[in-house]
């Protein structure tokens, strides 16, 4: 019997959210879809979050992924940027949890290392390697799409386990057990 799995990868963002969806059949990887959700024309930050949630849910309902891999926000110099990215990531995670899809989070360097062998690779290097791995010709205009795809492929390469590089959630109960200090108000 063939082993099949669909993985959605998300590169969260409040200006552009990238996504990639792959299908695995007996350890052979196939690209189902990749793209980006453009949010720059939406002025209200809460409406941006709603759009991220709605689009993530629509992708989940269309492709029925078994698992979600999502890039973790990284700490930069701007705390406000990290807060915005965390919110974007949170609504994508909420969409997956609402459909009982397990989620694994990966640090950006882990994703790059998994795809190119170098944790400091550029977006262009990651996109080129993905094109080689998945044999697609047209690189998307916005590399956020290949970033989302990279997270999905990284998850596949990691065997569906973030090991020590991230956290895995399979539902609200798991999330709450792994984050005992968090309270829902």
Show the helix and strand layout.
Layout: E1 4-11, E2 16-25, E3 28-38, H1 45-63, E4 67-71, H2 79-98, E5 102-106, H3 108-116, H4 123-134, H5 144-157, E6 168-169, H6 172-178
Parallel strand pairs: 1-4, 4-5
Antiparallel strand pairs: 1-2, 2-3, 5-6
Helix pairs in contact: 1-2, 3-5, 4-5
Structure explained in plain terms:
- The structure is a single chain.
- The protein has 185 residues and is α/β, with parallel strands linked by helices.
- Mean pLDDT is 87; it is low at 162-166.
- It has one domain (4-178): Ribonuclease H-like superfamily/Ribonuclease H (Nucleotidyltransferase, domain 5, 2-Layer Sandwich).
- α1 packs parallel to α2.
- A hairpin with a 2-residue loop joins β2 and β3.
- It has a 6-stranded mixed β-sheet with strand order 3-2-1-4-5-6.
- The protein is 44% helix and 22% strand.
Q: Proportion of β residues? A: 15-25%
- The CATH superfamily is identified as Ribonuclease H-like superfamily/Ribonuclease H
Report the structural category.
alpha/beta
Give the beta-strand count. Answer: 6
> How does CATH name the architecture?
2-Layer Sandwich
Please indicate the count of domains. 1
Q: Helical stretch count?
A: 6
Q: Which word captures the global form?
A: globular
Distance between the termini: 46 Å
Rg is 16 Å
Q: Give the SSE order as H and E letters.
A: EEEHEHEHHHEH
In CATH, what is the class? Alpha Beta
Mean pLDDT across residues: 87
For the biggest β-sheet, the strand order reads 3-2-1-4-5-6
Per the CATH scheme, the topology name is Nucleotidyltransferase, domain 5
What ranges have pLDDT less than 50 throughout 5 or more consecutive residues? 162-166
